[in-house]
Amino acid sequence: MEGIGRQTIIFFLPNSMEAFTNDQSPNTLSEEGVGWFKTQLYINPQSFDINDKKFIKSDFTKGGFVTQYWGEDLTKISIGGTTGSAGIEGINVLRSIYRHEQGQYRKLLDDRRRQLAEEAASIQAQAISDSESRNFGTNALDLLTGGAYTQTVDGIKNAVEIIGDAITGESQIERTTFRSIPTLAALATNVDMYYQGEFFRGYFEMFNVRETASEPGHFTYTTSFMVTRRTGERNNFMPWHRNPLNSSGVAQMSKSVTEAKGDPLTGGDNFTFPIGGYEESSIQSEVTIAQDMDQDLDRETSLLQNRPGQG
Fold first, then answer.
1. Max CA separation in the chain (angstroms)
2. 237, 212 Cβ separation under 8 angstroms
């Protein structure tokens, strides 16, 4: 079973606007990437239930039933298990994933508030510096005209810039890019969950924790995840799994129950992990070794029974 590799559930949580605007997908991330925060569970849950449902409504009328088809409902994933030796700290990790949008949005607001304060301080310092650099003549004229001199000069400068823009087609006015922060809804409904080859994007609906006195130190949890987008595909992963499709890609019936399914000479090539390298001679040699071991065991048993003082 060396070729069987299974990972625990991995969550990719959006942490900035770059998660929704850049081309980088969390599906290709091995570690924390731009706009995403990676969190992997300590152990896998004990149950992972995927529930699909269709919106079909049937109404009874005088002429019979009228059925309306509205499409498919959102897929609901119910997850339940225990944190094992991770204990209550494992529950803390799960709760932080469940409430990710709350903490992250508060952090984004703090960063935005700090950035605006720094920009305001920079603008104020620049204004003070510009005021101090004015020459005495300009200050005197502003004092005599009530600031009309500076306003007139600035107006002429703006008019020259507007005319220059029309001639050259280029703007001389410095423009800044407006940057927004994601909303709570955007952070909450764009959580990516990776499980055994499939990616599920959606949002958490509920999270429950249970602790009982009969099992101190053990914590069980249940949570539900609503899926808005599903990508990827799961494949067989156990050695006894068989391919349900034939060589043409058509679904086929299972082999007869009387067939020796574990025998590599009778359909062993249909296993998920084909049993190769077996030949009739090698199988015969293994049978011979087993017979020799049985003979050695019988010989040792006979010697023990014939020892002096036995019986």
1. 133
2. no
pTM score, whole prediction: 0.64
The partner residues of 78 in beta bridges, in order of sequence, read 49, 224
CA–CA separation, 34 and 236 (whole Å): 32
Residue pLDDT tens, the chain, 311 long: 444 456 899 999 988 877 777 666 665 554 555 678 889 999 999 999 999 999 999 999 998 999 999 999 999 999 999 999 999 999 999 999 999 999 988 888 888 888 888 888 888 777 776 666 655 555 655 555 555 555 555 555 555 555 555 555 555 445 555 566 678 898 999 999 999 889 999 999 999 999 999 999 999 999 999 999 999 988 888 878 888 888 888 888 877 655 555 555 455 556 665 555 444 444 455 556 656 666 666 666 666 666 665 54
d(C-alpha 3, C-alpha 193), whole Å: 24
Alpha helices (H) along 100-183: 100-133, 136-145, 148-168
68: enclosing H helix or E strand: strand 64-72
The helix/strand/coil state of 8 is coil
